[in-house]
Amino acid sequence: MTTLIKGGLLLSATGESLAEVLLDGERIVAVLEPGSDLAGAAERGADRVIDASAKYVLPGGVDCHTHLEMPMGDLMTADTFESGTRAAAWGGTTTVIDFATQMAGEHVRESLDARLAEADGQCAIDYAFHMVLGGVNDQSLGEMDKLVDEGITSFKLFMAYPGRLLSDDRQILLAMQQAAGNGAMIMMHAENGIAIDLLAEQAIARGETDPVNHGYVRRAELEAEATHRAIQLARVGAAPLYIVHLSSSHALEQVAWAQNNGANVFAETCPQYLYLNLEDHLGAPGFGGAAYVCSTPLRSKHEHHHADLWQGLRLNQLSVVSTDHCPFCMNEGKDLGVGDFRNIPNGLGGIEHRMDLLYQGVVAGEITLARWVELCSTTPARMFGLYPRKGAIVPGADADVVIYDPAASSTISAETHHMDLDHSAYEGFELQGGVSTVISRGSVVVDNGTWSGTAGHGGYLRRGLSSYLR
Question: Which domains does the chain possess?
Answer without folding.
Answer: 2-59+393-406+430-451 (2.30.40.10), 61-383 (3.20.20.140)
